[in-house]
Amino acid sequence: MTRFQVRNLxxxxxxxLCLAFTGGVVATLILKPEAFDSAIGGPxxxxxxxxxxxxxARYRGxxxxxxxxxxxxxxxxxxxxxxxxxxxxxxxxxxxxxxxRITPVFITVDPRRDTQEALSAYAAHFHPRLEALRGSExxxxxxxxxxxxxxxxxxxxxxxxxxxxxxxxxxxMGPDGAYVTHFTAFDDETEMTARLARLVD
Length: 201
Known about the structure:
Layout: H1 3-31, E1 45-47, E2 53-55, E3 63-69, H2 76-94, H3 96-99, E4 102-108, H4 116-123, E5 131-133, H5 137-146, E6 151-154, E7 163-166, E8 170-173, E9 179-183, H6 189-200
Parallel strand pairs: 3-4, 4-5
Antiparallel strand pairs: 1-2, 3-8, 6-7, 8-9
Helix pairs in contact: 2-6
């Protein structure tokens, strides 16, 4: 075998090893995101639909199941919030003492349009314990950054409402405020329920 062939073979082997490693990381992130304990989350001070200040300290001693979204969202947000609702309802039926330790939280990424009244009415469509929070654009942006998320306001055709592109994970934070795991679009309510039962227990 020539030196050129040896070098090419070595390059191919290295490339295959890199692909295998990358594929394994991606698969683990999707299938077992709790394996990645990183600096996600942090302190915040927002307001509930009644204008009362709510900080992250409110959720100490219990789990917080958090989703960022907005009331004008046409599809993804209501779908994810409904999945959260169904997962919690299923857990309430299976293990009510575990479900009671989880507080579902919805933080709007669109405080320009999501008034206190709009948030209150929107939250009523989902789990009865869902807590809806809002803040200034700067406050909300800071919270999103602390969760390593993103938000982008997307203008539409003239006369149409803008859309908001944003992180669509559902985060689970522990009683100490630390990151536990997150649920992706691959996790439906059945998967959420199973993992919640395992992690909260």
